[in-house]
């Protein structure tokens, strides 16, 4: 069978039975995956995309967790990835939300129409019970023709039963009319699942088999939708609707009047967690006390026995920007706690069901920047760390939106480390200057977004998202997400970080750093009207953004000079680590454009402000 | 009338979804011609939130303008 692009990931599991978890977003797939695979997890970026596939092992079998999708097809990257993994499955475990069967059974019936051996896990039975929803699992199993296992995965209920049911997995009862058409295609398309996708007009799968896709998608979907509605009618008894606390809360998050204060509360919470506690106290302990206090002197001592620190090699290894000193300290002392903090906030927001509501609340605002509401997530994360924000742009639907969001992040969003220093300096000069600073940065944000919206061809994709119910996040699930994401983030980031630090190190030992500082001075003095030494801050700002801002605090600046320098340093390019991620995510050409653009904007706008007020 | 004309708390029956891709996407979410939906929330100039069955979806204002519905008033 031709698995197309999925081959590399699936082939590693050759010889094992391939169990694939399939389901809509937020149905609890990852809880099943975590419980069955234990801690043995591999995350790979699916070839040619940025979508992650989790792979683990359960007994002798290989277990795959696919991205949450509403159907198997080619609407977006997630679907294409899920489709290819599903096409290679030996057994499909379809996880459905017992409180959302109208939506979830659509995918179930599609999998069953594909003719794959299937088990359905009816998750969130506890929540359904609490809401007074009765689902007749036995009847559903009979109608579908596959085992249906009631479960409440976060409470550990049904996990073992669902696993045991794998032995009883069978192809279910396909829609007779759809099945007849699929069978007729089998002389041209050798596999039944792929034949269904060809029937549904999937161009990619059709091309793999050298046939023309059929245009039956809408008809098949309509038949399937009717069957779902019939099924739900027969197996679900729903009480007459009464608003529950979480429904009310969900609505309050949406209405601007209450939603905006809630948003500020959430942002304040994130700021307290990441900006104050982690960036302050935790990093103070890990970076200053542990790594700079104990580790760096020790490694200098050890290396110093063989290589004197004053030599070029010594500088590269254990100097100011050394691979074994600065790089290690930043990676473990600074980046690791911060990344864990971000993933904590993100996982909590994700699991509570708040993010889609936030996206809805801010959709209108983001539309004017050529984005849709979903883009608010990377932008908010960017305030914590531009690097993470850049990575999170992967959730956006189109390349156009990813480009716009990434550009905004790298141009105008200051990271938390920098924000601390900026807020401190602005507090010292007073409200009037703070307002000017905020206004200039906000104007830049609007201008950058608007210009890109006009210049880049295409238009923003309209918002169409499913709002999951508000739920209390489960500590175990959140912890697992934090661990897995942090681990794979660090695994990806460290190479780029080492390369970047090595570059600066070489620049420094070769004298390039000093030369650049001198070259920058005329710009600093003439155009920005700042003291000559401010140039150092810009160079340092590239290594680490808060260094740049911190460098400014040592200078004696007038209030207006403070505003000019802060505007410039905010708009100036992000730190090396972010830059490395930028190049990795957006490719050399686009990343270089953003980088040069940010430099031009920083000095341009900073200079204009200087010329106007100084 | 179109979806974006609905008021909060109002019920309507979907009568026409013009774009084929959109039709297919909405079918997956459980919305098709003839389906009854309730306007759960309506943000100023922004998206509409629809409720039907146990489900809530947010529809951007542009999309809401394209979807035709037949109003049924605010009865449950």
Fold topology:
The complex is a heterodimer of chains A (614) and B (76).
Chain A: H1 7-11, E1 18-23, H2 29-37, E2 41-45, E3 52-58, E4 61-65, H3 77-87, E5 91-97, H4 101-113, E6 118-123, H5 125-130, E7 134-135, H6 137-144, E8 148-150, H7 159-164, H8 176-185, H9 192-199, H10 203-208, H11 217-235, E9 236-237, H12 245-254, H13 256-304, H14 312-318, H15 326-352, H16 354-361, H17 363-367, H18 376-384, H19 386-392, H20 399-412, H21 416-429, H22 431-455, E10 464-466, H23 475-509, H24 512-527, H25 534-543, H26 545-553, H27 559-571, H28 576-613
Parallel strand pairs in A: 1-4, 1-5, 5-6, 6-8
Antiparallel strand pairs in A: 2-3, 3-4, 7-9
Chain B: E1 11-16, H1 20-29, E2 36-42, E3 48-52, E4 55-59, H2 61-66, E5 68-71
Antiparallel strand pairs in B: 1-2, 1-5, 2-3, 3-4
Order of helices and strands of chain B: EHEEEHE
Mean pLDDT of chain A: 85
Shape of chain A: elongated
Helix content of chain A: 55-70%
Quickly count the helices of chain B. 2
How many strand elements of chain A? Answer: 10
Biggest contact: A-B, 41 and 32 residues
**Percent of residues in beta strands of chain A:** 5-15%
């Amino acid at each position: 069978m031709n698995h197309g692009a999925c081959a590399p990931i699936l082939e590693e599991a050759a010889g094992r039975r391939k169990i694939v978890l399939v389901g809509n977003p937020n149905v609890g797939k990852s809880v099943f995956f975590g419980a069955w695979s234990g801690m043995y997890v591999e995350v790979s970026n699916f070839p040619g995309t940025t979508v992650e596939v989790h792979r683990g092992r359960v007994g002798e079998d290989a277990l795959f967790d696919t991205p949450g999708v509403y159907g198997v097809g080619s609407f977006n990257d997630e679907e294409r990835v899920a489709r290819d993994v599903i096409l290679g499955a030996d057994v499909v475990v379809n996880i459905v939300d017992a409180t959302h069967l109208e939506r979830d059974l659509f995918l179930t019936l599609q999998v069953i129409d594909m003719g794959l051996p299937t088990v359905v896990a009816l998750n969130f039975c506890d929540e359904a019970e609490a809401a007074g929803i009765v689902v007749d699992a036995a009847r559903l199993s009979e109608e579908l023709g596959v085992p249906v296992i009631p479960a409440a995965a976060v409470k550990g209920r049904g996990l073992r039963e669902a696993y045991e049911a794998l032995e009883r997995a069978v192809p279910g009862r396909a829609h007779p009319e759809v099945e007849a058409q699929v069978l007729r295609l089998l002389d041209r398309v050798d596999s039944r699942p792929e034949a269904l996708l060809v029937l549904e007009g999937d161009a990619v799968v059709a091309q793999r088999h050298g046939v023309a896709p059929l245009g039956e998608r809408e008809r098949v979907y309509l038949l399937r939708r009717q069957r779902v509605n019939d099924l739900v009618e027969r197996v679900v008894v729903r009480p007459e609707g009464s608003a529950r606390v979480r429904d009310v809360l969900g609505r309050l998050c949406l209405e601007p009047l209450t939603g905006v204060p809630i948003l500020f509360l959430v942002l304040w919470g994130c700021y307290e967690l990441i900006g104050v506690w982690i960036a302050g106290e935790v990093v103070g302990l890990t970076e200053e006390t542990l790594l700079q206090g104990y580790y760096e002197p020790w490694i200098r001592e050890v290396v110093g026995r063989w290589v004197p620190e004053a030599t070029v090699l010594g500088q590269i290894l254990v100097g100011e920007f050394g691979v074994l000193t600065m790089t290690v300290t930043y990676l473990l002392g600074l980046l690791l706690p911060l990344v864990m903090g971000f993933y904590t906030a993100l996982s909590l927001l994700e699991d509570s069901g708040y993010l889609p509501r936030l996206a809805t609340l801010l959709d209108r605002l983001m539309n004017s920047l050529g984005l849709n509401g979903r883009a608010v997530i990377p932008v908010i994360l960017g305030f914590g760390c531009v690097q993470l924000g850049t990575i999170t742009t992967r959730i956006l639907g189109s390349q156009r939106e990813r480009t716009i969001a990434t550009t905004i992040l790298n141009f105008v969003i200051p990271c938390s480390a920098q924000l601390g220093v900026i807020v401190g300096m602005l507090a010292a000069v007073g409200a009037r200057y703070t307002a000017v600073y905020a206004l200039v940065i906000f104007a830049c944000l609007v201008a950058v977004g608007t210009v890109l919206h006009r210049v880049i061809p295409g238009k923003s994709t309209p918002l169409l998202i499913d709002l999951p119910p508000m739920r209390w996040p489960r500590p175990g699930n959140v912890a697992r997400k934090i661990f897995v994401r942090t681990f794979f983030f660090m695994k990806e980031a460290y190479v780029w970080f080492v390369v970047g630090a090595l570059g600066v190190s070489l620049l420094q030992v070769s004298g390039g750093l000093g030369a650049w500082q001198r070259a920058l001075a005329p710009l600093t003095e003439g155009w920005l009207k700042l003291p000559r030494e401010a140039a150092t801050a810009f160079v340092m700002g590239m290594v680490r953004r808060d260094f740049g801002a911190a460098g400014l605090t040592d200078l004696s600046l007038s209030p207006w000079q403070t505003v000019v320098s802060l505007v410039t340093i905010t708009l100036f390019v992000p730190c090396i680590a972010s830059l490395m991620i930028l190049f990795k995510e957006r490719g050399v050409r686009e990343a270089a454009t953003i980088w040069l653009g940010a430099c031009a904007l920083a000095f341009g706008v900073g200079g204009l402000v200087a010329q106007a007020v100084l | 009338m179109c979806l974006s004309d609905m008021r909060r708390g109002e019920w309507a029956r979907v009568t026409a979804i013009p774009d084929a891709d959109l039709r297919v996407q909405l079918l997956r979410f459980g919305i098709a011609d003839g389906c009854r939906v309730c306007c759960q929330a309506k943000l100023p100039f922004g998206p509409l939130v629809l409720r039907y069955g146990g489900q809530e979806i947010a529809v951007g204002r542009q999309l809401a303008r394209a979807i035709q519905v037949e109003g049924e008033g605010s009865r449950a």
